[in-house]
Design a protein that fits this description.
The two termini are about 30 Å apart. The longest helix has about 55 residues, at about 45-100. The protein has ten helices and eleven strands. By secondary structure, it is an alpha+beta fold. Strand 3 and strand 4 (about 180-185) form a beta hairpin. Helix 2 (about 45-100) runs antiparallel to helix 3 (about 105-125) and helix 7 runs antiparallel to helix 8 (about 325-375).
Length: about 425
Amino acid sequence: MMRISTGMERNNFAHYNRLHEIDKNKTEKQINSSYRIGLLRDDPSSAAHSIRFQGKLERLAKYQQNAELTINNYAVAESTMDSAVQLMQRIRELAIQAANGVWKPSDLKYMAQEVDNYLEEMFRLSNQTGADGLSLFAGTRTDGAAFRAIRGNVDGADGLVITGVEYIGNNASRHIEYSDGSRIDAQFPGNAVFWAENQKVWSANRVDGFVVPEDTYIVIDNTRIDLKAGDSIQSLIERINQADVAVKATLDPVENTLVLSTTTPHQIWLSDGEGGTVLRDLGVLSNLERQSPNNLDSAARVAGGSTFDMIVQLRDAMYEADQHKIGGSALGGIDMALESINIQRSKLGSQENRLNFALQRISLEENAYTAWDNAARALNFTDAIAELNALETMLQASYRMTGSTIKTTLMDFLR
């Protein structure tokens, strides 16, 4: 039951005027911020949609940043590969000229010196860094050089020259996310970019009666392959061939040994799983605790060289004036190295195009989600201004009515 008192009329006017003031302040804040939602309670449903849209916009901004940074690194890597291709094409021209059989040993020595300079430049390119100072071709070991040169004396050469180049990075690749659930390689390991031939590894031990002793696994090129106790050599080969790895396993029909061959030119990396000894038992890996790729058994046969091996072979053949070798295995090795770099360059180009298309899509999505977010919480200025004018008019009328209706009394002056 409402109690009627002499102050009731005054309190009612004050109460409703405060409500009008609150509505007026809310409308003014909306106009100042350009949004009709300041608090979740203003419109819970639209606020929930807006939060989801803004979350998506934040992810799109991160995806755009990832894609742009990767494209910049791709540009440096592509420029490096282009330079490598030009070097290899010039080296190939020299190999073809030297194979003609019309040059004197002194002429071939001059060609060998030129090839040696190109070898030095190729080594420099292989250790190229990106704009962030990180190595482009060292896999995920980006804080150091990708390759290390071994220098020594070569008959016919003046002073120390490169006699070999070792890869000291790793074969892992850092992946960046450029869309929800979509990733792409951000780097290219140098033991694939600068590798000329498919590599083969023959186990040192025969596989007669071989059986996996216990449940374990092996790792090939960072891919885990699970093995079961009792697996025969045929089961092992089948598991390797079914794995998502560019390596094929076979049996040597003459020596009855395990043969691991890459299906694309790159350096194979092998290791036994924790506590396992399968590859050691087969004579593929050494019993010494070493990291890939320097952990192969000393008695295991290995074939397949890097781009540097092919250039060194050609240069040494020129110093030796070995026409047969220059026009045969040396020239063939240069052709394989050139083809391998072109394949990697093509792969990089396709991935760069993929990211460029992704950036276009991200831009379209950003526009769409921004429009949806604005529709969910944006303010209709025409309606807001009309409402503000109505509230101001209502307040003015209310105050005038309050002044004319509620008369002052002696108690007002006593207060």
